[in-house]
Amino acid sequence: MARDTVLATGGASGLYRHTTSPHPASGEGMMMAAELGAELMNLEFQQFHPTCLYDPEGVPFLISEAVRGEGGYLLGGDGQRFMPDIDPRAELAPRDIVARAIDGEMQRSGMDHVWLDIRHLGEEAIRHHFPTIHAHCASRGLDIARSPIPVVPAAHYSCGGVSTDLTGATTVPRLYAIGEVACTGLHGANRMASNSLLECLAFARGCARRLAEETAESGALLVERTPGTRPVSRELIAELREAMRGVMSAKVAIVRHDAGLDEAAGTLAGLSERLAPHLAEAAPDADAASLWHALRLARLTVACARARRESRGLHHNPDCPLHADATPTPSRIHLNALQMP
């Protein structure tokens, strides 16, 4: 048995319908830690990248912010720019402001996406500055030198996760977390671009130094578990996961409201109740286990969002004033906060 365990399992973007990763994690590592009693922190702060290629039938593909930096325009359903009316920095505003603006424009127009237009830059400049984006879009039948790019905000990075100290240690002895699964506090309520890469390097080194120290062997006993033999319906798993992603995307995403969070809490509890009876005698099943982890993490995320009575960073609730708490603190939660079915 390993003396220590390090989690490096990624974030929780898979709780949402649109993500920037082809195979997003759904917080499985966070919930494995929570099952052992680990504290989770800042789950309500989920970052959305403003511009993911909108293609429901294809794999996610990130359209870099450099495209807007080079002069790209965001266009609404009427073909007109909307960012200059929202922020003086227009398309160059911070990604959370741009993501909220796109979300608002989609709500206003009823469209599933907006447009990112760089045609005015000219084909030569587009091919020079964005060869990968140009080639990828071309492979999917889109010539971005002649047509605007359909884009949608997508879940990109989880600022919350398993609470750790500066060595990656969680609140569970001998359990460590590194990377997006962890919440070190470094990113606060809104991660700045690329800081997560530096965090991985710095905290991994600190964790390695801690693990290299001589410590006594663990006296913890292994927990025996006898799995069942009944398969869980593939159709049920797919249905419940899609329903979870739907409610999280509609009610617990870029803009939240009190009523929507209340509705999400009830819907997610109902989905958990539907899955729970199938797990007691279920045969080992990675998809079913992933869904069970995801549903409970989604419910904990909603609980944290409901508890924060202010708008701050990535948590934007128009029913709450901006920065209302003069001495803001991280949200902290444990698995026993749920009234489990």
From TrEMBL:
Thylakoid among keywords = no
Entry-linked InterPro entries: FAD-dep_OxRdtase_2_FAD-bd, FAD/NAD-bd_sf, Fum_R/Succ_DH_flav-like_C_sf, Fum_Rdtase/Succ_DH_flav-like_C, NadB, Succ_DH/fumarate_Rdtase_cat_sf
CC cofactor: FAD
Reaction catalysed by this enzyme: L-aspartate + O2 = iminosuccinate + H2O2
The protein's UniProt keywords, in alphabetical order, are: FAD, Flavoprotein, Oxidoreductase, Pyridine nucleotide biosynthesis
Q: Which GO terms describe its molecular function?
A: L-aspartate oxidase activity
List each copy of the FAD-dependent oxidoreductase 2 FAD-binding domain by range: 2-197
Question: Region Disordered: what ranges?
Answer: 310-332
| PANTHER family according to UniProt | L-ASPARTATE OXIDASE (PTHR42716), L-ASPARTATE OXIDASE, CHLOROPLASTIC (PTHR42716:SF2)
| Family, as annotated | Belongs to the FAD-dependent oxidoreductase 2 family. NadB subfamily.
Spell out the protein name for this chain.
Answer: L-aspartate oxidase
Source species, please?
Answer: Halomonas elongata
